[in-house]
């Protein structure tokens, strides 16, 4: 038995005859722990790397919320769902003060209308044109940092005076070098999954800083 | 002092990693047999969408696209009921006290659907789902820190590893070798009523994990109709022997909702 396990690599088709799942389950569990440890490391490294910038960005967000600003988040695919989770964190947090925030991918009618009529690369930009005021905030999430629809919206947002924040991955792509982004948080990793997990943590830190700052001003330190 | 969230990966200990592994193998086996994965997350819809897009459009090129759909209607139980077929999969991302998920998880047994429940906070009771993948913490912010995202990412990654072991994806033949296999011995199978009886002596059409069947409901009492659509009953040897405490459950849910408001 032990011998056959040790030589199984010589028989690529032996897998189809596999009947005992025990060793696979052990391997899967070990793999889950390894990936989880990598996720922890990456989240901590990202928080450390951007500690100061996150504090500054979160504070600027709070200032805008205090002036009635609202938050737009956007991304594609899994990042669009993470953008929606981030918007919900700001708009209906389990604790703290809710502020106006929504995901620009949330409305199927709007997204399909724009995609069909003016092109997919404009689905977010066109909404920024419609909604944005100069006191608002835009957060774009892209694991590649290259998505055309996000870049177009960021440029538009910057022109309209919004605070612009990008969450990127890999080497940061176009976002890392975009003049139109006030802050770019690049998670240095090749795994889209691990990048998204760190994006969530970075977003949570922004929210924490903004909450802390809003509470402070509300207590009278910086009266309107 | 800024509140710092605990990284999601730090919750993945020996127990949780073993739970994830077992869940992934079951997912792979059911997908291999043609299952569709339904996903509900009434409190955090984006999580349901993220799970679905993960399986439908994998981030790693060359991985199989698998059928998965987020069910985000206001009534996820009604949506899952009509969507699911025996052999399918249902993942809920929800707290243990989310009424519609409690209900869906219970009914899934009658639908013949394998259930996974991802969440945090107080745990659902043991057996509330086939796989309970839980973050044991009272931190209410966990759903927004990437922890659930990590959980379903790991599930997806492990599931695709299982596809590389086709010998282990065949229906587990050892499932029904026991002499007292409850599933097969007709010992009080859970059923959900589709059609109520037309008169006091007529049977009701009932859905169980084995499909649809006409079931004698006269043992439930003389009051007609003994059952109504969506009632849960226990079926034994072609007859309904008990109607489950649906009303009580519904009242509990109503009072919980009121408390939340």
Verbal overview:
The complex is a heterodimer of chains A (224) and B (261). Chain A has 224 residues and is an alpha/beta fold. Chain A has a single domain, classed as Rossmann fold (3-Layer(aba) Sandwich). Helix content of chain A is 55%, strand content 11%. Chain A has 9 helices and 5 strands; from the N terminus they run H-H-H-E-H-E-H-H-E-H-E-H-E-H. In chain A, helix 2 crosses helix 9 and helix 6 runs parallel beside helix 7. Chain B is an alpha/beta fold and 261 residues long. Chain B has 2 domains: 161 residues, Glucose-6-phosphate isomerase like protein, domain 1 (Rossmann fold, 3-Layer(aba) Sandwich); 59 residues, SH3 type barrels, CATH 2.30.30. Chain B is built from 6 helices and 10 strands, in the order αβαβαβαββαβββββα. In chain B, the strands form 2 sheets. A 5-stranded parallel β-sheet of chain B has the order 2-1-3-4-5, sandwiched between helices. A 5-stranded antiparallel β-sheet of chain B has the order 8-7-6-9-10. In chain B, strand 1, helix 2 and strand 2 form a beta-alpha-beta unit. The C terminus of chain B is likely disordered. Chains A and B meet through helix 2, helix 4 and helix 9 of A and helix 1, helix 2 and helix 5 of B.
Give the name of the CATH superfamily of chain A. Answer: Glucose-6-phosphate isomerase like protein, domain 1
| Chain-averaged pLDDT of chain B | 90
CATH topology of chain A: Rossmann fold
Topology pattern of chain B, helix = H, strand = E: HEHEHEHEEHEEEEEH
What amount of the residues of chain A lies in strands?
Answer: 5-15%
* Strands of chain B, count: 10
Radius of gyration over C-alpha positions of chain A, nearest whole angstrom: 22 Å
**For the largest interface in this structure, which chains are involved and how many residues does each contribute?**
A-B, 57 and 51 residues
Distance between the termini of chain A: 76 Å
Q: Give a count of the beta strands of chain A, DSSP E runs of length 2 or more.
A: 5
* Strand order within the widest beta sheet of chain A: 2-1-3-4-5
């Amino acid at each position: 038995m032990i011998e056959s396990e040790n030589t199984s690599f010589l028989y690529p088709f032996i897998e189809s005859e596999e009947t005992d799942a025990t060793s696979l389950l052990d391997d899967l569990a070990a793999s889950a722990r390894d990936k989880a440890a990598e996720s922890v490391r990456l989240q901590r490294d990202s928080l450390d790397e951007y500690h100061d910038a996150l504090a500054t960005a979160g504070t600027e967000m709070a200032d805008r919320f205090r002036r009635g600003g609202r938050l737009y988040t956007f991304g594609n695919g899994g990042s669009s769902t993470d953008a929606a989770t981030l918007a919900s964190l700001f708009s209906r947090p389990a604790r703290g003060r809710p502020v106006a925030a929504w995901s620009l991918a949330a409305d199927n009618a709007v997204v399909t209308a724009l995609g069909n009529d003016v092109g997919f690369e404009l689905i977010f930009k066109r909404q920024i044109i419609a909604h944005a005021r100069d006191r608002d905030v835009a957060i774009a999430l892209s694991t590649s940092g290259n998505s055309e629809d996000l870049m177009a919206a960021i440029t538009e947002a910057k022109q309209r005076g919004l605070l612009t924040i990008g969450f990127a991955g890999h080497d940061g792509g176009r976002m890392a070098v975009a003049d139109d982004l006030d802050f770019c948080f690049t998670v240095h990793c090749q795994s889209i999954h691990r990048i998204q997990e760190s994006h969530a943590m970075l977003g949570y830190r922004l929210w924490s800083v903004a909450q802390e700052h809003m509470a402070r001003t509300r207590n009278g330190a910086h009266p309107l | 002092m800024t509140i710092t969230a605990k990284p999601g990966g730090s919750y993945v200990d020996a127990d949780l990693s073993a739970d994830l592994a077992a869940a992934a193998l079951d997912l792979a086996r059911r997908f291999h047999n043609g299952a569709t994965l339904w996903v509900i997350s009434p409190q955090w819809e984006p999580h349901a969408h993220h799970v679905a897009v993960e399986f439908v459009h994998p981030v790693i090129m060359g991985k199989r696209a698998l059928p998965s759909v987020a069910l985000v209607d206001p009534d996820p139980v009604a949506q899952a009921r009509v969507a699911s077929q025996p052999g399918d999969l249902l993942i809920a991302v929800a707290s243990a006290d989310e009424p519609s998920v409690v209900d869906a998880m219970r009914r899934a047994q009658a639908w013949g659907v394998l259930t996974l429940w991802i969440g945090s906070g107080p745990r659902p009771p043991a057996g509330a789902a086939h796989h309970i993948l839980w973050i044991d913490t009272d931190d209410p912010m966990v759903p927004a820190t990437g922890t659930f995202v990590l959980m379903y990412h790991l599930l997806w990654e492990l599931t695709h590893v299982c596809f590389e072991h086709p010998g282990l994806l065949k229906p587990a033949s050892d499932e029904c070798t026991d002499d007292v296999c409850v599933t097969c011995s007709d010992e009080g199978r859970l059923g959900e009523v589709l059609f109520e009886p037309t008169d006091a002596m007529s049977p009701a059409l009932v859905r169980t994990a084995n499909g649809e069947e006409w079931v004698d409901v006269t043992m439930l009492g003389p009051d007609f109709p003994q059952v109504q659509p969506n009632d849960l009953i226990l079926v034994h040897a072609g007859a309904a022997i008990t109607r489950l405490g649906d009303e009580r459950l519904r009242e509990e849910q109503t009072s919980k909702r009121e408390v939340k408001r």
